[in-house]
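Researcher: For the annotation table, I need structure tokens for TerC/Alx family metal homeostasis membrane protein. Please keep the output clean. Sequence:
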Amino acid sequence: MEITGLQWGITLALILGLLAYDFFFHVRKPHEPTIKEAAIWSAVYVGIALLFGLVILWMDGPQLTAEYYGGYITEKALSVDNLFVFLIIIASFKVPREDQQKVLLFGIVFALIARTVFIFIGAAAINAFSWVFYLFGLILIYTAGKLIKGEVTDSESESDEADNFVVRLAKKVLPTTDYYDRDKLFTMENGKKVMTPMLLVMVAIGGTDILFALDSIPAIFGLTQEPYIVFTATAFSLMGLRQLYFLIDGLLDRLIYLSWGLSLILLFIGIKLMLHALHENTLPFINNGEPVPVVEVGIGLSLTVIISVLVITVLASLYSPKGRALRIIQKTLDLSEQYLALPKDAPAEERTRISTKIAELTQQFPKISEKHKEELIDSRAKFRNMVDTVHGQQQEFESTGEVKTPSPDLDQDDVDSAAPTATVQPTGKAADERGPEGHSSGGSSSVR
């Protein structure tokens, strides 16, 4: 069924309207969204995307509806993975928390523009050259291989995502400040107009958006060749990504097997594209230029495989021994930071509540295998110091009614080195969580 110009026009107006609303009512005034705000708007955007699928069902039939939902789920998973790299870039540029929304919205808009260009280039290439399916399939299989290699070899990133060639060039050619002036891209310094780091971080995110489009667009073309479905599934997968960032910030590193799941999905779609390319074959050196009679994978099976892999990936990340170990370590670290940040006149109930939870968590440390302790450890000394100080301060408070022992003088780098973190591979597709190990000793909250 051919998509009418009216349907295209209404869809574009809806998407532009959502972006405008997001900017004028959420991003224009710098602030840090609350968890409640992020959760509500994440749900709203997901709901809009799902309802839009019903509109496609009404206007275009069940086939395109299934292709839309398959494409949306795949692109949403890839978009969540992109947040790993956004986290690295934003953290390395030390963007103020209240200004991060503007950076993220720019990244979403730029990603939408870049992917739209790739969509129409890809659609035109497919219409003109059927062998492009071979190319798309090879791109996805290669990307899947890189993800698997990154997980197996545990290789470190060879380059800083936030210090790419464009950023380095911009710093050399254009004068740039070392500080932010709220959310301004330019500011005045010594009577001259200069760039702020805000512009550089947007350049860095824009550059990574182009790289992400190189594998996300072939992935969705593996599920549908209808440009309208490709565009809408991609657009709605990007909508709400800003809110999702603030909702799951700090939880992304718990999806420890996300790269494995995405690699399997990309590998599956890559093979599906190769089979379709053989079915439509026109290359003279393959079967004398005639189509090859192969089994093609339908959209129903594709949707089932994609959803199944994602569900298994999330469950394995959260409930596997390594996932449980990471949760225990991360929760212990978070609660220790909370306790050490308490003012001297903090209520006794609050101190007791936090210290009790920490004691319960540290009692679970002996259950963590040595293998996972080695994988998740980064700085045992700093982590042990934090937990032991909490225990010592609590004992002191229970004995004297006040806390005199000072908290460790940890700066943000110290806290980061003690915490499990996500290390993104050069493609931004793999994360390696690292943290400390420990166990309870007698009646104390000792971590070793």
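Researcher: And a one-line annotation?
Model: Residues 156-162, 421-446 have pLDDT under 50 and may be disordered.
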